[in-house]
Amino acid sequence: MKSQKTTATAEKLIDIAESFFAEKGFYGTSIRDLADGIAIAKSSLLHHYPSKEKLYGAVLKKLAGEMTLEVKYIRKQFTDEKEQIFQFVQLLCNNSEKKPNRENIILRELIDNPKRAEKAKKWFFVDYFKELTGIIKSGQTKGLFKPINPEIFILQLLGAHRYLIISLPTVKQFFDEKIYQQILKDHRTELETFVNERLINEEGV
Amino acid sequence: MKSQKTTATAEKLIDIAESFFAEKGFYGTSIRDLADGIAIAKSSLLHHYPSKEKLYGAVLKKLAGEMTLEVKYIRKQFTDEKEQIFQFVQLLCNNSEKKPNRENIILRELIDNPKRAEKAKKWFFVDYFKELTGIIKSGQTKGLFKPINPEIFILQLLGAHRYLIISLPTVKQFFDEKIYQQILKDHRTELETFVNERLINEEGV
DNA sequence: CACTCTACCGACCGATCGGTAGACAGTCAA
DNA sequence: TTGACTGTCTACCGATCGGTCGGTAGAGTG
Fold this sequence. Notes:
The structure is a homodimer.
Chain A: H1 3-28, H2 31-37, H3 42-48, H4 52-77, H5 81-98, H6 101-117, H7 126-141, H8 150-171, H9 180-196
Chain A binds a DNA duplex through α1 and α3.
């Protein structure tokens, strides 16, 4: 079982790289700091990932894979598209509290990707995005959602959430620390309202 | 008029720094490149702004000042808070087409600010944010807006817009290039709907 | 004329960057 | 036992980083 230790080191690298890239960005993170962070030599890091870019790519790939899986799981678990999109809102909010790194990395990647894309790098979040717009498109054929543009709706929903999340540390000075949890709860409710207003409700009205 | 040439150089520095910081971020931008970009020596750059941090701060300050002024102008120009917030949506959308750098810098700053804030740096967008929430709070006392949390509303509105804008270059591969303008137009309409749903409409229902 | 101030410059600094080379210890198969 | 492979290390590389230094040209001022 020689590969066990190796795998463990590689995974530790991914983990610490995820948090460092999230906090300081690609250019702000040095592979020296990453290696020091898990107490190995820098050249040992480069043994597992032959370049900083490759390591960064591995982090993105793992992150995108996890997120896509989570959405696919929701789509398999619930047949009703309305239920799916509300479950996704819950997933978004819950993950932001459990895994705050994610939003930072995704935002940074969105900003930086256009430059990198010129170097023929693929966008890791394609499947994630297509799963989400797929919910809306599927729901629209069943007459569950209003005839909005699915891509715009998803981007606005993700944006309304992620922007607020990354703003919180900065904006927190305006809030009483005690009502911080209340903010997160109200935000969740507002997101649900946003979704709800784009549903077609056959029974009411 | 000795200061004319100096001012011109300093302004050129601010301009190129704004576009470089927006595109590559703080760590991804070197003061060498900035100096080369306007054909002066690096030491000359450091004559005008004694450090990279100071230059970055000057860019943020100018940007925040402009944006705050724009909002204040809207508030002075229109007395009705409903009109103010709709005008602000127009401002957001128009500026994203005219000055695409802005959204990048603001997003980057929001992500990075918490680290910098530890070094006792102030947040340049305080006034901007307070002007915007001020519109909502003022409108709520007049019974024009639903009793939502003003900070959450503003953050979600800004997020829905800015996230979509910075995503467009990446997501564009999914869109036919010809309908790009239609996307921007639909996005604007959706933002207006988002705002509209949070108004209290005494007449209708 | 002498003095000061501003804008600017090239040369240089120590530190840090991403990445390479080579040695060494442990493991496993032949 | 030997040889190939793996993971790790120290030592080192050229490039680039932000920033300092001493100095110069020119305009303003007395």
